[in-house]
Specification:
It contains five helices and 15 strands. By secondary structure, the chain is mainly beta. The longest helix is centred in the middle third of the chain and has 9 residues. The chain binds FE2/S2 (inorganic) cluster.
Length: 231
């Protein structure tokens, strides 16, 4: 889509931080795992655009957050750049999908979960931080503590993760696995890193260690096949 204008049509609190719904033209709505760079033209103090991962997707807009700037209010106009990057593409044949948020907000996984459930896939989310916020999640979703993720490995036929590079570095220890062991089914990970240059792959801030060198999350991700990366 490229550049467009959006408007905040609602804000709310999630885990004590701001989340918002943003109305925008349909081609500007990101797919699950993609991102949009947003800036408030009235905020001259903001040096960099804010990266938004969708947490709910509609035809004429999307939700994002928690963690949005407190100055964003209903009616605020945003300059948007996107959708950008590569989103989730779990196998259509998957029937038992596990989702896990290794750190940060699990809301970034919500559109991928909603898509999987709408295809008739059973879904379970392993995460902390869900207390009191389950009203925004599909009723068919099961939830479990992150520590029980190893138990899902005999059940699932696909896995989607969200993690910072530090969180991803802890996955092997969470699973109790040594170096080199690989998952027996497709797995993808949304790597949450700063994305300041909007997919130009020029600043290097989003570099992620891969099995062969580095990949840029802004251009090659932010969703990667897990086995592309060093973990
Ligand atoms: S955000 Fe600048 S290279 Fe990726």
């Amino acid at each position: 889509m490229g550049r467009s204008m959006g408007k905040i049509t609602g804000v709310w609190e999630e885990n004590g931080e701001l989340a918002a719904r943003i109305q925008c033209p349909a081609p500007g709505v990101p797919a699950p795992g993609q991102y949009v760079l947003a800036s408030d033209p009235a905020d001259r103090a903001a040096a960099l655009p804010y990266r938004l991962f969708p947490t709910a997707i509609e035809r004429d807009g999307f939700s994002a957050g928690p963690g949005l700037p407190r100055a964003w209010l209903p009616g605020s106009v945003l300059a948007l750049n996107g959708p950008l990057g590569r989103g989730f593409a779990l196998p259509e044949a998957a029937r038992r999908a596990a989702f896990a948020c290794l750190d940060g907000s699990p809301a970034r996984l919500r559109p991928a979960i909603t898509t999987a459930i709408s295809r008739g896939c059973a879904a379970i989310l392993f995460s902390g931080g869900l207390e009191g916020a389950l009203d925004r999640w599909p009723n068919a979703l099961e939830v479990a503590p992150l520590e029980s993720l190893p138990e899902a490995l005999g059940w699932a036929d696909a896995l989607a993760l969200a993690a910072s590079p530090g969180g991803l570095a802890g996955l092997r220890s969470l699973l109790g696995w040594g170096a080199g062991k690989r998952l027996p089914f497709p797995a993808q990970v949304l790597v949450d890193v700063p994305l300041p240059c909007g997919g130009m792959a020029e600043c290097g801030a989003c570099a992620v260690r891969a099995r062969r060198g580095y990949r840029y999350a802004c251009r090659d991700g932010p969703v990667f096949d897990l086995d592309e990366l060093e973990w």
